[in-house]
Design brief:
There is one protein chain. This protein is of the alpha/beta class. The longest helix is centred in the middle third of the chain and has 18 residues. Strand 2, helix 6 and strand 3 form a beta-alpha-beta unit. Helix 1 packs across helix 4, helix 3 packs across helix 4 and helix 4 runs parallel beside helix 6. Helix content is 43%, strand content 11%. The chain contains 10 helices and 6 strands, in the order E-H-H-H-H-H-E-H-E-H-E-H-E-H-E-H. The protein has a 6-stranded parallel sheet, covered by helices on one side. The model has no long low-confidence stretch (mean pLDDT 91). Pfam families: HAD_2. One of its GO terms (molecular function) is metal ion binding. Keywords: Hydrolase, Metal-binding. InterPro entries: HAD-like_sf, HAD-SF_hydro_IA, HAD_2, HAD_sf, PGP-like_dom2.
């Protein structure tokens, strides 16, 4: 089993910390349906890991949309905010795990591909923003996942070396991003990506069905700080 000592923990948001991936496929279907377009079977895999802005650019090119990138993102934001505020819960055990990390004084950050307005909506509605010292979106860096940029950016803002970070992810592109940044990565189960479970297990250092399993999975290693 991989040996490690961590000084910070970085979370992906959608599908990892919060149960929200179900809604994005529904939004894609509705958004394209308004334009009399069908949602392709390969769409979710194609946009996996892309930043909010990258996804908008992909939609514009693939579906020959006349709307500007800002108009596309604004419509998605309107469609998603109500769901984020009222229908998206924390993943099982996540609240307890966040509290455990806080009690041990471990800094936490979020590295998400989502847009800032949606991130604000879900963090505030669930009341978890105070747990995080840094919240960053992939729109703030050069390239989205699977590039390591967002994880390196969050580690830098936390003041921690990437190799001393533990990352939580739910899809292969995110796992690859964390690994490319030099971090230890735990792959979290999510029904939306259940068909990719074998790939996720292969790419990640650890696997967990939910956050209730994580403390036992890590033992005391997470709380043992590396020597300066």
């Amino acid at each position: 089993m991989k040996q490690f000592q961590q000084t910070a923990v970085i979370f992906d948001l959608d599908g990892t910390l919060v149960d929200s991936m179900w809604m994005w496929k529904a939004i894609d279907i509705e958004y394209l349906g308004r334009r009399n377009l069908e949602c392709p079977e390969d769409l979710q895999k194609k946009i996996e890991g892309m930043s909010f802005s990258e996804t908008a650019a992909y939609f514009k090119e693939r579906f020959h949309l006349s709307d500007s990138l800002e108009e596309i993102k604004a419509e998605w934001t309107r469609m998603s905010l109500d769901k984020y505020k009222h229908q998206v819960p924390l993943k099982p055990g996540a609240g307890h795990f966040l509290q455990l990390l806080k009690e041990h004084g471990i800094p936490m950050g979020i590295a998400t591909s989502n847009g800032q307005a949606m991130v604000d909506g879900v963090l505030d509605s669930l009341g978890i923003r105070p747990f995080f010292q840094t919240v960053a979106t992939a729109c703030e860096v050069k390239a989205g996942k699977p590039a390591p940029d967002i994880y390196l950016f969050v580690a830098e803002k936390l003041g921690v070396k990437p190799e001393n970070c533990l990352a939580f992810e739910d899809v292969p592109a995110g796992i690859q991003a964390g690994k490319a940044a030099g971090m230890t990565v735990i792959a979290m189960a999510d029904e939306f990506s259940r068909h990719m479970e074998a790939e996720k297990r292969r790419l990640a250092d650890f696997w967990a069905e939910d956050f209730n399993q994580v403390p036992a999975l890590l033992g005391n290693r997470l709380w043992s700080r590396p020597a300066d």
